[in-house]
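User: Some background: our group keeps a shared notebook of sequences we're curious about, and every so often someone picks one and asks for a predicted structure to add to the entry. Today it's my turn. The entry only has the sequence so far, pasted here. Could you supply the structure so I can complete it?
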Amino acid sequence: MSVHHNECILREMFATFTDFTAPIEKVLAFMTPDYRQCVDGREMALIDFQTHTLALRNALWSLSIDIQQIVCEGNKAATVHVAHATRRSGAESLIKVVAFYYFREGRICMVDELTHVLQGHGSDQGLGGLQ
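Assistant: Of course. Here's the predicted structure to add to the notebook entry:
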């Protein structure tokens, strides 16, 4: 796959992930069956990511992702992005994420990310791994 293709996959995945009306299967289609994600030292398998996605949809009114930087090389990519989350209570959070991705056969197979709350509450640090 081309570097440009991997960038498109990430942008499409984020657009689908933040569209709370999109079927969960559409989000999961971007990942391989053996998908792994490490968020702030906590590892998730694909089923955990599914639970995480549903938990975010239940806890949040909206979520948007602003990709500030993206670099792609071969089967790898890295982003620096800011997640803007609005809870159902109306409370807002800004969370900076530095993430590294591996791709296999046009799908994301591994993500390693660190998160940092820029604006919000201390409990917002756990949004990246919310179950």
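Suggested note for the entry: The two ends are 32 Å apart (CA to CA). The helical segments are 3-17, 24-28, 46-59.
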